Amino acid sequence: MPFLALSDQLNCFLKKTSSALIVCGYSFNDEHINDTITNALISNPSALVITLLYGNIEYYPKSIEIANRRHNLIIWAENEAIIGTHRGKWRKANDINYEFEEFIEEENEKIYFKMGDFITFSNYLRSLIGRSSEEI
Description:
Layout: H1 2-14, E1 20-24, H2 31-43, E2 48-52, H3 61-69, E3 73-76, E4 80-83, E5 86-89, E6 104-107, E7 110-113, H4 118-129
Parallel strand pairs: 1-2, 2-3
Antiparallel strand pairs: 3-4, 4-5, 6-7
Helix pairs in contact: 1-2
């Protein structure tokens, strides 16, 4: 019963106009949760789910499959992203001043987005509230 109640709450939230959900640490290996997310995104095209994945996008074939079909499921993995069903590697734009460079790593001309790592994501959230790690 607790799963059904939580699943129903997730479904209700995602069906609200212009709802946005950021998910960190979900592997897309649970078909029940996948169905809840997918069905809600189908019924509400204004909803958005951004998923932060740890490591290489290839570790998450189910997320790739779903994001290729749903324009409102955004996947951000370490090496690639799928945004609006378009898949691509990370790159820096030459004319943008990056405020969040601590969440990006460069190696051999490749860009790695580190926000799917819980520690990096936690540091980002901490930066939003203005606390340093020394204060905690």
